[in-house]
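Progress against Task 2.4 (sequence-to-structure conversion) is shown through the following example record, which the project officer requested during the mid-term review.
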Amino acid sequence: MLIARMLANFPKVRRQLKEYRNFLAGCPGPLARQALDSIRDKEFHCLGGSVYALLAGRDKEDDALRFIVAFQTISDYLDNLCDRMGVQSEPAFRRLHASMLDCLTDRPLQSGDYYALFPEGGDGGYLRRLVDDCRAALAQIGLDERRRRQAQQLTRLYIDLQSYKHLRRKTGEEKLAGLYRRHAAAMPGLYWWEFAAACGSTLGVFCLAAAPDCRGVYRAYMPWVCGLHILLDYFIDQEEDEAHGDMNLVSYYSSEEMQLQRLLLFYARAREEVKHLANSAFHTMVADGLLALYLSDPKARSPVLRDTGRRLLAEAGLRPRVLCGLARVLRRAGVL
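Structure tokens generated for the chain above:
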């Protein structure tokens, strides 16, 4: 039932992304090209995130979906800008990502020009359009102050990650290690790259935006569900990132066995922590679904990753294996 409802939202996700592509058709220049590339290459981020709209209830589901797609589109677009435009400026990255905090406020906007410190700025109003879509959707949802505050906390951590990881490698590593040291008392027992990975997930924000009952969400998602999400993302991207010289957070583990054991730890802790949440069955399905979504990707079947991926699924249990099989069918059918 949950999977069927999620799949029913996929056409809505694609319609919204088509709106953004149409908007960009009238915006020539390098920023529009990066925006179009991010929509083309990262559509599955919006499709996967759309499951959280189901938490909002039938009357708010479309508003939650609109927020999720717009917010994720900002995330993917800005990631492209930071990766591909030859810029290595922390202030410029933070200025760009101020747009994500503006999405979460109901107050008049103060941030001004998000591109003020960036070498390019002509996006035809695209980024502001995405921010406005987020704000309008949250106004319809009626986000309470507690959920808003926690979503802002997660977004600030996301901005820290994005502002550091795109710097020169050694500088980025040092800053990310320092970021974890500042938070280690609240989240002990992690490696700095695991905390960095958890900072890079938008799932906690989606959950807080959509779910009326947010008790325990921050603790369960940060670092466990969010960390599982992004560690899996980096796991399947290892060969691609190595080829392009990009930072890959999973590559910091000393061995494939360590990768496996830490991913299994995050999976087990995620499932344990979400037991205490409202709609716990939903969140457990998300943890299982993350394994299925990423390990069904063709990249996970490369000779380098295949054995570790198989062991992950084998040790995770029956439902992730079943969901992984379903995800492969959906990929072959072009649904995912």
